[in-house]
Amino acid sequence: MRRRVIALITAFCLVLSGCAVAARSDASGEPLTFYYLMRDAEQLRGEEAVASETRIASVLSLWDLIDLYLKGPEDETLRSPFPAGTAVRDIQYPDGVLTLHMSGAFFTLTGVELSLACCCLADTVFAYTGREAVVLLDETESIRMELRPGQFVLSDDMPVGASEAYTLYFADSQKRYLVGETRSAILSHSDSEASFVVRKLLEGPENRQLSSALPENTEVLAVRVEDGVCILDLARGFYENRPQDLTGCYLAIYSLVNSLTALEGVEAVRFLEDGAAVERYGDFALGDPIARYGECIGPVRTASGEIDVNMYVCVEATDQLFAVPCRVKQTVSEPLAEAVVTRLLSFEPPVGCYAPIPYGTELLSISMSGTTCYVDLSERFYPQEDTEAAEKAAVSALAATLTDLSEIDAVVLTVGGDSGGLQYVDISHPLTGAIF
Predict the structure, then answer these.
(1) N or C: which end of the chain has fewer CB within 10 A?
(2) Global pTM?
(3) b/e for 225-255, b at 16 or more Cβ within 10 A?
(4) How far apart are CA 346 and CA 356, in angstroms?
(5) Those residues with Cβ within 8 angstroms of residue 426's Cβ, 6 or more apart along the chain or in another chain
């Protein structure tokens, strides 16, 4: 026989007055409401599976209430939804949010059993505290579940499943990289993974070191996945209130794209505005589906030899330089300038940008004298379409990337050992930064 399923969505617990169990009248204290399962819950319809038990007891705190609750029901027609060993290890209120640190035994539950246990525990806590949210954490804080009133709804046709982990990307404290946060949830049959991810992105990060990369009042109109592409329809406000700087737009786009493409079966994201195709987000092109971009994901792991640098590329719409934050891995024996130039020559820019240094350019030699960096590149550096704009863009990208480093003030560039091979740009003198 097919088992009944609960998904994380709950108002039903509040309408179970017909299932309430009478309170003891010989005790002193206050009336307390506890939620448990009916003993034959597996054979009942969803709305009949959970019942409330009211007891008269004296408790001084939430600690006392939970201790009493986890001892189980007094009525023989009810049973506890919790496995042996379930306990609350700690109760905290970070940023005013009630947080229960649960023992490992609680998280041995999966699927239906986990949903039922969350429902009973949450409604018991809500009934006592009057709060509108409770967060459950495991002992290592690797699992986090946020429960709210009205979040649980019984479904007869939802497949049984365990709690899934979803990665959301938010801006770091310097607004240079996106850093992942995990959310765990069991979704209802009416809630898609893509919708859940976008909804949680809009709620913002839990880590106070992070911030949302999305404009305020971003409104989602529709989310669906078709043939590996997530169609994301956002209201006009997302576009009208976009960040005014290139980096802000870049992080906003990839906060959504990288969070959604972390889902199985999603390879790219197509953006719509009020149901219509949209071509740009600031200076960034959105006409085609946007694939995942790993360069924007942090943090910089300095302990592993990574260095935070800017890679300069050009924006297609304006040809202006754009500094893309990049984690460069430097080996122990490798000079910093060499590691940076090597990375720049193979760097793949984000959507709407292009690398102005011709593909296939090789680093022939590099050295330092004081704060001046001497770089010799292969003749592939000469632009295929040799125009003044192309030469300036290529030279500027190299010079700006290197002079952004604290140890370099100027760059002396040669191509195949020659300082006079370019037609439009004079590289016979040291370059101190972008030349346009």
Answers:
(1) N
(2) 0.64
(3) beeebbebbbeeebbeebbeebbbbbbbbbb
(4) 11
(5) none
